[in-house]
């Protein structure tokens, strides 16, 4: 299965300086585990990579991604919800899962 793990952007501009360009290590660990079990896994980090939410949705559609995992906390929830809506419109068959501290 093709899996895309996404770290959404924060809408709180004051928080962006706190996060800077630090990668989401949890997504890296998940990707390593999934890859070891024969899943084609990719990570897009909207805090680091030059992707918009709409570009992520197009990527999901173009690459027939079967599952998208969104890492969510209190500052990324709005972006995660916009991403989920855009992905659902672009490719309704894709399973969307929210994880992280906010989803828990």
UniProtKB/TrEMBL annotation:
Protein name as catalogued: B12 binding protein
Cofactor(s) named in the record: [4Fe-4S] cluster
Domain B12-binding positions: 1-104
Species annotation: Rivihabitans pingtungensis
GO molecular function ontology, one term from the record: iron-sulfur cluster binding
S-adenosyl-L-methionine as UniProt keyword: yes
Keyword Flavoprotein among record annotations: no
GO terms for cellular component: cytosol
Superkingdom in the source lineage: Bacteria
Keywords: Iron, Iron-sulfur, Metal-binding, S-adenosyl-L-methionine
């Amino acid at each position: 299965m093709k899996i895309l793990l996404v770290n959404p952007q924060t809408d709180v501009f004051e928080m962006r300086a706190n996060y800077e360009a630090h990668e989401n290590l949890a997504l890296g660990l998940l990707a390593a585990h999934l890859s070891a079990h024969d899943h084609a896994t990719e990570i897009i980090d909207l805090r680091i990579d030059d992707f918009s939410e709409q570009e992520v949705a197009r990527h999901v559609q173009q690459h027939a991604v079967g599952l998208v995992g969104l890492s969510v906390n209190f500052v990324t929830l709005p972006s995660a919800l916009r991403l989920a809506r855009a992905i659902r419109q672009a490719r309704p068959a894709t399973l969307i899962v929210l994880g992280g501290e906010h989803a828990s």
